[in-house]
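User: I'm preparing a small set of examples for a lab meeting where we compare how different chains pack in three dimensions. I only have the primary sequence for this one, and I'd like the structure in token form so I can line it up with the others. Please keep the answer compact; I'll paste it straight into my notes.
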Amino acid sequence: MEIQVKSADRNLLLELGGELDHHGARAALREMEEALDAALPRKLVLDFSGVTFMDSSGIAVILRARQKMQLLDGSLLVRGVSPQARRVLDAAGVSRLVTIK
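Assistant: Understood. Below is the structure token output for the 101-residue chain.
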């Protein structure tokens, strides 16, 4: 799991790449927490364009991001979700909780 972090004007973009499985999610959560604590953003965008595979562990990453952004009174957008990952998110009803484009 690779994560590119871009931050500007209290906007934070995390571009995820690789497999978002149990091991990848652990690394993603750690990096995401560090980036959020450093930037304290008003808006967080999780870009899943580079994610080649995602299982239910990816749901934990999104829900943790949602929780952190609620604490910061900020917003969360998930974008670039592949059809495979979208099926996982839809099965869990995640789109009712976060904006997915």
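A couple of notes for your slides: Helices lie at 22-39, 57-71, 83-92. The radius of gyration is 12 Å.

User: Perfect, thanks.
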